[in-house]
Amino acid sequence: RKRMVSGVQPTGSIHLGNYLGAIKNWIELQNTYDTLFFIVDLHAITLPYETQELSKATRDTAAIYLACGVDTSKASVFVQSHVRAHVELMWLLSSATPIGWLNRMIQFKEKSRKAGDENVGVALLTYPVLMASDILLYQSDFVPVGEDQKQHLELTRELAERVNYLYGGRKWKKLGGKGGTIFKVPEPLIPPAGARVMSLTDGLSKMSKSSPSDQSRINLLDSKDVIANKIKRCKTDSFTGLEFDNPDRPECNNLLSIYQLVSGKTKEEVAKECQDMNWGSFKPLITDALIDHLHPIQCLLLLCLSILCMKVLQEQQK
Ligand code: ATP
Ligand code: MG
């Protein structure tokens, strides 16, 4: 079977972008692929963090994976820092990574600008090398990611090719092959819809855990009232009717796409249903669809958290 790996950082709250762009798609994929889903706690320390919060967020993230439907009888679920080979391979890969490749990463530029000089550690720059090691370590065929990770995945591919060329080629040729054997070059799996869920307060920025404004995102664990309030206050526009794909209406496109994904309807069905609506009639519709979709996950989450806490206690008693 083809292999696939993916992960989410245990920082802040898991939001609708992480869910629709990544976790929700894993549930289908785990039936077809050999899947490894990890909690990338080593990525979470690239910006300032609190130790205790990180441990709690790591457990919460594992519980969210399970509550969303990740099945441990089909997929391997683990914490990145528990497998030391991720960091060991990262060191080896960094010796083959030209620094210019890292300097041009958009996420580094954005996050370092926001964090301010004092908080920009070397790890924020070298983060994509660790991500490459997460993927290449397992000889993964595919990596399901949101659009924001496309550039990092491209770097992973280039790095795999570079290592294959630098260290694999000669040996392989002696054996009569075409060159390039050390690492498999992985392909991205970008979902057709949900790959870039945008902020509720600015349709041109992606919904993000690290945004300081909680109003900008729907967290998977937001209560009904909080969801209703965030939708009530989210940014809209003053055009008539609602439509997909109008570049002058990024917020409208984003809200319709979210509605499409959580209601399970097709894009055409949503376009037709909403074309003559105004925001006053659409907002209760999307609010209900969000609440209905997230409710079962939230119920299961409590159960998953209790099970994980029990397991941790059992381990400690051993
Ligand atoms: P941060 O802002 O701290 O980087 P994040 O919200 O980007 O946090 P990550 O843990 O970095 O979350 O990303 C986990 C997964 O979620 C990745 O596969 C990423 O591509 C996907 N993802 C993150 N944000 C979005 C989004 N707005 N829309 C779709 N997918 C997203
Ligand atoms: Mg991110």
Write a structural description.
The chain has 318 residues and is mainly alpha-helical. It folds into two domains: 3-189, 3-Layer(aba) Sandwich (Rossmann fold); 214-317, Tyrosyl-Transfer RNA Synthetase (Orthogonal Bundle), CATH 1.10.240.10. It has helices at 16-32, 41-44, 51-68, 85-94, 99-103, 106-115, 122-136, 150-174, 224-233, 250-263, 267-274, 279-317; strands spanning 3-8, 34-39, 75-79, 142-144, 187-189. The model has no long low-confidence stretch (mean pLDDT 92). Bound molecules: adenosine-5'-triphosphate and magnesium ion. Residues 8-9, 11, 17-18, 21-22, 145-146, 148-149, 195-197, 206-210 line the site of adenosine-5'-triphosphate (ATP). Adenosine-5'-triphosphate (ATP) binds next to helix 1.
Keywords:
single chain, about 325 residues, mainly alpha, Rossmann fold, Tyrosyl-Transfer RNA Synthetase, about 55% helix, globular, binds adenosine-5'-triphosphate, binds magnesium ion, nucleotide-binding, EC 6.1.1.2, ligase, tryptophan--tRNA ligase
Quickly count the domains: 2
CA gyration radius, whole angstroms: 21 Å
Query: Which CATH C-level class of the largest domain is it?
Result: Alpha Beta
Could you name the CATH topology of the largest domain? Rossmann fold
What is the overall pLDDT average?
A: 92
User: pLDDT under 50 segments (min length 5)?
Assistant: none
Bound molecules: adenosine-5'-triphosphate, magnesium ion
